[in-house]
Amino acid sequence: MEWTREQRYLPYNKWDAETLLKLQAQADNSSYQLNYHIRPSSGLLNDPNGFSYYNNHWHVFYQSYPFGAVHGLKSWVHLESCDLVHWQNKGLALGADTKYDSHGAYSGSATVIDDKLFLMYTGNVRDQNWQRISYQNGATMDKNGIVTKLAAPLIYAPAHVTEHFRDPQLLKHRDAYYVLLGAQDKTTLSGKVAVFKSKDLKNWEDLGYLDFSPETMGYMIECPNLVFIDDKPVLIFCPQGLDKNVANYDNIYPNMYVVGNKLKFDAARMETKQTAPINLDDGFDVYATQAFNAPDGKAYAISWVGLPDMTYPTDEEGWANCFSQVKELSLDEQNRLVQRPVPAMADLRQAGQVVKAEKAINGRQILVDNASRSYELKLTIPKGQAGTLHLVANQDLSESLQLKFATGDAAQLVVDRAHSGIQFASDYGFTRQIDLTANEDLELDIFVDNSLFEIFVNGGLKVLTGRFFGSQANNQIAIQGTTKEELAFRGTYWRIDHI
Amino acid sequence: MEWTREQRYLPYNKWDAETLLKLQAQADNSSYQLNYHIRPSSGLLNDPNGFSYYNNHWHVFYQSYPFGAVHGLKSWVHLESCDLVHWQNKGLALGADTKYDSHGAYSGSATVIDDKLFLMYTGNVRDQNWQRISYQNGATMDKNGIVTKLAAPLIYAPAHVTEHFRDPQLLKHRDAYYVLLGAQDKTTLSGKVAVFKSKDLKNWEDLGYLDFSPETMGYMIECPNLVFIDDKPVLIFCPQGLDKNVANYDNIYPNMYVVGNKLKFDAARMETKQTAPINLDDGFDVYATQAFNAPDGKAYAISWVGLPDMTYPTDEEGWANCFSQVKELSLDEQNRLVQRPVPAMADLRQAGQVVKAEKAINGRQILVDNASRSYELKLTIPKGQAGTLHLVANQDLSESLQLKFATGDAAQLVVDRAHSGIQFASDYGFTRQIDLTANEDLELDIFVDNSLFEIFVNGGLKVLTGRFFGSQANNQIAIQGTTKEELAFRGTYWRIDHI
């Protein structure tokens, strides 16, 4: 199906309900459907929005286009949780229905203000010449889920940015409100984080661009997020078009972070010793991560697993993408970001089963036969070994998601999805790799959810996330030795059911 | 909102998608929404359909009208489960879109035939004079959830029935297929169960009406279901307009059962010693129960919790009704039907908490303060006591769902929902009552799910099910003594989370 601009921006009330019901059923019945991650009811999901804690529940929204796997007229769909793992879909919360968001209720954040959840979002508008105008709008959600939009935008684009000005993160800091915005500078056409300040959410002061690096951050920054971890500011953002000499990445667009020492909000400056941004995720598909500090001070993040300007195999089924699991963020003693599953993820574990590899010298050993399509697999591979772990594999291992590990002198981990099923995103390669410290044990905490993998390495110092689209019949977990030595390791496999 | 006939039968493709998304969000956000029972995505849910086991999963469908809490153009919505407790919604499966079901894909059953799930359902058609024609249609569902309708009806209404001829249960018995159908006899205008037989699903023999009682079964029988328990046939059915002298009931329409000794299918006769049908549920809202024998021979039942021709408080929110939990059926040594929760219901239990009442002489005692809105409460009340258990109660117990028990000489259990919240169905009374054996311990296994209660009495010998619509703030469980004696009992309370 060719999607015309007119179709993509058709108001939701011009679509018929039967089409929507069929699209929902098509997504519900997909053999690639996720079992314990947030996914769209139909159509396309992209950025997480409004990740927050309010009224004794966790909240998150997803950018939604319900009528197909394309970027059309966007709205916010609301989900609610008691534990950051089990989410209840609360449906359409914020649509594109005013003159300040006529072409999409784009991404934004949520902050508790005066007993309501205050949503700040980008209203996307196209004028008669299809020129984009970006408004930064406000809305409130009450305890019954009723959303009320403010009558006028909070912030209009200043003269020094192009029409690419979006993704507001509203933060309360001391006695003022601050907003971070992704922006493109009009003069240099480079990516920036714009900062605004207000005492009353009405009068806004333009504090200029956030100074956090001497480098140029590509041509546009999307989805800036600031969280505080151990009192240190951490900026998570997507610098589109970043020069790979500044920081290397393999995906079409990167999602990166910088850990600062100190934030001087009013001066719009984050001091940092970090010379270059670092990839938040070393896998294939993480983008638009949204992070926030919960009332208890902890920092949590959730990501879109999907990338702009890419197609995925489920597009043909009229739906696409999912969210990552929520991760708790911390810093290690070297100020490196650590991402860990939240405690309630362990509640999903069903009937643990010990897995162990022994003497798989140049051969293969089945670790779990007839595995579920959804599971957690936690392993420790001792130092000095090398081999390939085959996930969601067929009988002869010709089809599988491969994790090639080496824990000796040249220590590394390579994830290869070339043989995991339908090939896609070929322009960006089929492997992702991280270097490991030589001669150290390797800890892997692997989550598989039918068409999604999330691999936590060494307690969350690295995470590799990606999609894959293999046959439902592929249900083995196996190990293959690639050295002359003995392979020996132990771990646990837990089935995970649909939540 | 007044619903015209035209609105109610408007094809789904004449409704707009925005309306549907808003109705779905409205249902999702309802403060009366169910947490662990099947409920409609939007609009009205009624009969369970196609309850079956196929492709290693349990299946059930619900009669759906997605656009409001009215009986409009009906379709089947599909759900799938691994354990009869956690259900995945698979969306619209069978719509009203052919000349043999133009005014509704009405109720029916599902049977595994030739590696597919064979759906048999009533196609509701209205002619130009709005005269009803009922076709008994077939369709198949494959392992990918793709439904294909047969080109022509399987069974046309015979001359001896009126237009009220529906709800086929297709059964394979020995080397033939049999269909039971709810019917109204044209001559006597009385309720009947029509029986048909076929060797090939094409040529059908009319075996006449099932002979199972000398009494007249009201003016219409809906939803007949036959299951075998310990080789005994059990007929579950809804005799509308049944004379209360034949068997008493309190609801607008009853849902009853008869246990037979022997079924002579080809003679259309079920021999029974039971002189009158018995209420399947002694509560307020159970109807249209569907039961079937699983491949392991066990019999399971699931019910619509809702009644025809009634309004419920959520109607104003554009949605209505839910399903009961699935119950496993058995017979006790006196051939009485026993209904029990399925084993996986126990998996829902979170953090058990002992509850006990002591010395609540004419006073009240809080058993659980700050209880969840969803829970299981299992109690044994020793013989010789009397009192009132207050569920979902406010602080002074002026609002609560009351269970008045007496376990002495005049032993009985009364459920009173008069003070449980919004009053509804007032014409049919606010209490339901069952007699108990004098001077015996009373075992109660109570399930509460926000706006639904299911009370299993004495191991499932009686079940009382009903809806209630109280304030979200009512979260106490308390006991009140009504005798001069000491009250003493123990039990366990388990919180149940959203599934």
From TrEMBL, chains A, B:
SMART domains reported for this sequence: Glyco_32
EC number: 3.2.1.26
The Glycosyl hydrolase family 32 N-terminal domain, residue ranges: 37-341
A GO BP entry: sucrose metabolic process
Top-rank taxon, per record: Bacteria
Pathway it works in: Glycan biosynthesis; sucrose metabolism
Gene Ontology cellular component list: cytoplasm
Enzyme class: hydrolase
Domain called Glycosyl hydrolase family 32 C-terminal: residue spans: 348-482
Subcellular location as annotated: Cytoplasm
Protein name: Sucrose-6-phosphate hydrolase
Organism: Ligilactobacillus agilis DSM 20509
Source taxonomy: Bacteria, Bacillati, Bacillota, Bacilli, Lactobacillales
